[in-house]
Recover the amino acids of this structure.
């Protein structure tokens, strides 16, 4: 109707009211207002109590008595309220937790009135009046707190609603404690710019109920129907305990509704201190593809690290930096960050220094192949634990830089292992990879050589040498996920090597948590494998990422470019000669000593390192690796035409996947 439309905050009476409130606010002390209200309400309560006691027919003698005693009782109650500092409670946040204190104040005030009456015949008050007065005064004073809070929040909502008509309407999935908490936070703080319209929860007992005046409209499957008939722009998943299977189910329901999807931190993130509950974040690939929460023996891991000097190599990388964060939370005596990239070291040191309060965090700009420098740092700091995460890891890149991969990975482990033995390190842990199993790449072969070196050194050193294998980590630095996301953002195509390419995936926190547990559990010389669940097709991962980016799989083309040199279609978890043994932790397994090693592994590896020259060809490096790692299958795609003769017909080169080539090599052998 004309003339009845609502005016925004910059027009009409609303800004004037806001100006009046702001002008009056400096002169109003609401705690003083509360004291006045307590005095008045105490008198009103005392008056009403007589009416209730005598069924609204108060005898004349008691009516006169009531009028005479009223100011004294009101003043006595106010005095007790003040002495017990009832006025110091912040009425802005009055809630359920304040009720016991309010009841105590009411009981104390009524006890004072009873004692006053009992000590003087002239001040005698009927006992029923005192009991009724205790209840009514408590209710009235509690109501005053609630009314004052409600009045403030109503004014705040009135002013802010006028200024922010563009708030997003949202639905909350999960009507439990987390959902209630996030809605309470949104109602309290309008800076979020969100208005919750409805809850949804699969628990039928909650459906139809209201939380903070917001109705639980139905189960989560009912969200699409609600969104179609109501203006909703955001969905908040408020279920921190949701499994990844549940998160995938939620996302499949929400992905086609044109909503901004937010979620709360997982229980692992909150327990490990990565996040706080009220902080909403975007749903990410880890929510959809990560695995269930890992349970570890926290005390065992803490005892491993507490009050000890811990050194992490490759501290600026994805795994190394997460190792540093988790180590730091378990109270080491000192944390040493060894990294050869200046920028990476600068950033990780700055981040960890902000987290660290009492633990010194020392940045060491050092290449692990620099034996003199490594010895100097070990002598200076005397580390008790060494986590070796520094390595070259990109498979195709290392195929054309084989000598550098050999130098960095194998010469690096040689340098560190010797220093650990010489300077009395208690435990030395090598971060290995599933690509070390029956390797077909230079990178995988170098990591297998590192495992062999650790096993061999464990036989001659007092230091406990262990290795831990695991698969790809989600969203790690240089992993495929950021590359895929970049390609999706550009509209494609997304390049995938093969439609059947599969990989094992873990989250970075999960992998590092299990690495710490394995270090505490393992014995010297053992190779430990983290349970990596089921492998996932890379093409399925891409489709999940496309949906996560708000696109439909049909919109983004996928190009299959064929396996690259050194790549397998399927990663393996153990060599044929290795026997898996379960440990005390269900997600950590240990392999027995592998018989497929050179007769003198230390001598063979040391000789190979010593013979490495700057001009050593890729083919020479592969032959050196073959001597150290007998099960290494040199990919025919990585060899020159002369080297492939007699192994695979030349006309088939470039048309066969790496796994097929490796299998053919085995058969010819």
């Amino acid at each position: 109707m004309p003339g009845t439309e609502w005016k925004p905050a910059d027009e009409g009476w609303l800004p004037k009211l806001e100006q009046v409130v702001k002008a009056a606010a400096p002169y109003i002390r609401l705690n003083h207002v509360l004291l006045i209200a307590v005095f008045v309400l105490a008198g009103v309560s005392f008056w009403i109590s007589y009416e209730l006691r005598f069924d609204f027919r108060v005898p004349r003698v008691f009516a006169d008595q009531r009028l005479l005693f009223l100011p004294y009782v009101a003043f006595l109650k106010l005095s007790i309220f003040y002495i017990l500092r009832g006025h110091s409670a912040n009425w802005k946040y009055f809630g359920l937790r304040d009720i016991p204190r309010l009841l105590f104040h009411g009981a104390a005030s009524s006890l004072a009135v009873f004692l006053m009456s009992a000590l003087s015949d002239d001040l005698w008050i009927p006992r029923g009046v005192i009991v009724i007065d205790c209840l009514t005064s408590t209710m009235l004073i509690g109501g005053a707190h609630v009314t004052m809070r409600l009045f403030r929040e109503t004014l705040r909502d009135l002013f802010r609603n006028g200024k922010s008509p563009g708030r997003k309407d949202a639905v909350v999935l999960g009507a439990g404690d987390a959902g209630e908490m996030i809605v309470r936070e949104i109602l309290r703080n309008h800076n979020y710019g969100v208005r919750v319209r409805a809850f949804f929860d699969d628990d039928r007992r909650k459906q139809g109920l209201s939380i903070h005046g917001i109705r639980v409209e139905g189960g989560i499957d009912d969200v699409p129907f609600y969104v179609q008939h109501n203006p909703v722009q955001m969905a908040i998943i408020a279920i921190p305990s949701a499994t990844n299977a549940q998160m995938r189910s939620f996302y499949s329901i929400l992905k086609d509704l044109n909503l901004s999807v937010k979620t709360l931190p997982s229980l692992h993130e909150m327990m490990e201190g990565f996040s706080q509950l009220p902080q909403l974040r975007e749903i990410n690939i880890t929510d959809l593809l990560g695995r269930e929460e890992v349970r570890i023996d926290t005390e065992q891991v803490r005892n491993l690290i507490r009050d000890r000097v811990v050194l992490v190599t490759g501290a600026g990388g994805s795994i190394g930096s997460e190792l540093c964060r988790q180590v730091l939370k378990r109270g080491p005596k000192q944390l040493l960050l060894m990294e050869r990239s200046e920028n990476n070291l600068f950033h990780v040191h700055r981040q960890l220094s902000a987290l660290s309060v009492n633990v010194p965090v020392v940045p060491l700009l050092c290449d692990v192949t620099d034996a003199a420098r490594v010895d100097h740092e070990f002598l200076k700091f005397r580390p008790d634990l060494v986590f070796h995460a520094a390595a070259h890891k990109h498979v195709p890149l290392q195929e054309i830089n084989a000598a550098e991969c050999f130098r960095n990975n194998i010469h690096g482990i040689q340098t560190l292992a010797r220093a650990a033995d010489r300077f009395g390190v208690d435990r030395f842990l090598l971060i290995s990879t599933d690509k070390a199993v029956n390797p077909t790449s230079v990178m995988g072969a170098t990591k297998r050589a590192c495992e062999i070196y650790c096993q061999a050194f464990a036989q001659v050193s007092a230091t406990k040498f262990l290795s831990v294998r695991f698969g790809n980590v989600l969203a790690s630095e240089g992993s495929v996920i950021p590359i895929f996301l970049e390609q999706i953002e550009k509209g494609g195509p997304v390049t995938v090597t093969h439609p059947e390419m599969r990989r094992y995936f873990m989250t970075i926190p999960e992998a590092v948590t299990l690495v710490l547990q394995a270090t505490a559990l393992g014995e010297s010389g053992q190779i430990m494998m983290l349970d990596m669940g089921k492998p996932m097709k890379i093409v399925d991962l891409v489709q999940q990422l496309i949906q996560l980016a708000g696109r439909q799989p049909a919109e983004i083309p996928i190009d299959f470019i064929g396996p690259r040199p050194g790549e397998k279609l399927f990663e393996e978890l153990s060599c044929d000669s290795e026997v898996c043994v379960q440990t005390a932790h269900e997600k950590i397994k240990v392999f027995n000593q592998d018989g497929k090693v050179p007769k003198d592994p230390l001598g063979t590896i040391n000789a190979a390192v010593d013979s490495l020259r700057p001009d050593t060809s890729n083919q020479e490096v592969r032959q050196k690796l073959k001597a150290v790692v007998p099960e290494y299958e040199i990919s025919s795609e990585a060899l020159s035409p002369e080297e492939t003769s007699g192994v695979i017909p030349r006309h088939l080169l470039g048309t066969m996947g790496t796994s097929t080539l490796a299998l053919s090599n085995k058969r010819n052998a």
